[in-house]
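Protein details
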Amino acid sequence: MSKILLQQLRKQRELKIQLTDKLSVTARRPTQLQFEEIREKGRYADLGKRYIIGWDGFTENDIVGGGGTDKVPFDEELWGDWFEDHSEHWMKIATSVIDAYNAYNKSTEEAAKNSQPG
C-alpha cells in the first residue's frame, strides 16, 4: 500500500516540459526541502539534471548528431551528459520547474488559510 501511495505522490509532482517542437522532458518537481537545498547552493541547473525523469521524441541523431532516427529510451546518465552540453534548455527547464514549485506552494498556502478556523 505504501509503495502505491509513494508512486501517486511522486506522480502528482510530474510535469511535461516542451523543449522544441519534437523534444520534451518529464520533470518531477522537487519537494520543499529539496528546493531549499538547491536555493541555498544557488545551483538552479540542478533542476534540469537531477529532476528530469523521462523524455519524448529523442533520437540518436538528437543525442549524438548524425545518428539514426530511432527513438532512444530515457537513461538518467545519458540525459545528464547531454543536458550539461545543451545550455539552451537550462533556463526553460529551470523556469518550468520553479513555476510548478511556486504553484504548489501557493495552493498549499491557500488550502492552509481556508482550513483555519475563524
Strands lie at 14-18, 24-28, 52-56. The longest strand covers residues 14-18. The chain has a mean pLDDT of 91. The CA atoms of residues 38 and 44 lie 6 Å apart.
